[in-house]
């Protein structure tokens, strides 16, 4: 495989940012009830305040400068251009730090790990032990942000190949993997596909795709988890059904209206985080608009939702391959979990042990779905502890 990473800097062209401002100024707001509320989706009053800040307070160029402090690259991997952060450990007890692949989910980007990266590459500067330092690789998933969008469906089932090839190209023969949301699903798949290379797999959830499987011997705790998951799907999961069945229809509106895009995304940050209904307890307006601007300026909302369609529509050949993969049993690599209480549906340990060789299971004191951003110090401590004996 020819692998030649090229340095990359984020630099949206002025025409794209000017067009964004014109569209924000020309927003056509929907009608609705007089009382502003989150009961029907994103609160109109909050969204208006967010858009006002997008127009008059948000400084994208300052965000670019901040994100560009990370060493970023793009490289062609199996015919697809991948963007990734590659930060080297600042120190290590043995001079050979373990590398950690961090995999984000939806509706976010590599920015999920912005606060976590410094804690991992330079633990000594943040109250930790230099021997726990990691080299860190943080890709933008195919179809997200600054990576290319695949031109055909099925990318979910190719993620392990793309990311495994990325790590091989970087020269890493042993590495750990961490992820949540789709990142957790992909972490599991990488561990299954590359057991000789992956020394450990760490996740903040058990992939929701296991909920599609039938298990007649559920414990009482597992049955309660299944029941709660079904209730959550009815109350909150319509977005996944839309993205899993008709992502193209949805994309016309979200790709054409930045306000529509922000309204679709911000509600998830409020609902899935440990914020007690006040999204700005966990995320500033700048945090939310950083993610929205990346989706908008790269025009990747459609390609980002393809994973949901892939999951619900694997096709006959892929479906058979997935059944065979499950029959081979759980991944052989050690697995660790950090379960944050306000995540979408934290499972019991028995559920995780059905699918993984669980070596560490920690129920965290606070935090939600976007744990790496909400509670980076807690997550960094967990990652250090889990991978310490695996180095």
Describe this structure in words.
The chain has 391 residues and is an alpha/beta fold. The protein has a single domain, classed as Rossmann fold (3-Layer(aba) Sandwich). Helix content is 44%, strand content 13%. The protein has 17 helices and 9 strands. The protein has a 9-stranded mixed β-sheet, with helices on both faces. Strand 4 (98-103), helix 4 and strand 5 (134-139) form a beta-alpha-beta unit. Helix 9 crosses helix 10 and helix 10 (258-272) packs across helix 11 (285-298). The longest helix has 17 residues, at 220-236. The model has no long low-confidence stretch (mean pLDDT 95).
Topology record:
Elements: E1 6-7, H1 14-25, H2 44-56, H3 60-67, E2 72-77, E3 80-87, E4 98-103, H4 116-121, E5 134-139, H5 159-169, E6 175-179, H6 182-193, E7 198-203, H7 220-236, H8 238-245, H9 247-256, H10 258-272, H11 285-298, H12 301-304, H13 306-312, H14 316-327, E8 334-339, H15 349-355, E9 357-363, H16 371-374, H17 376-387
Parallel strand pairs: 4-5, 4-6, 6-7, 7-8, 8-9
Antiparallel strand pairs: 1-2, 2-3, 3-5
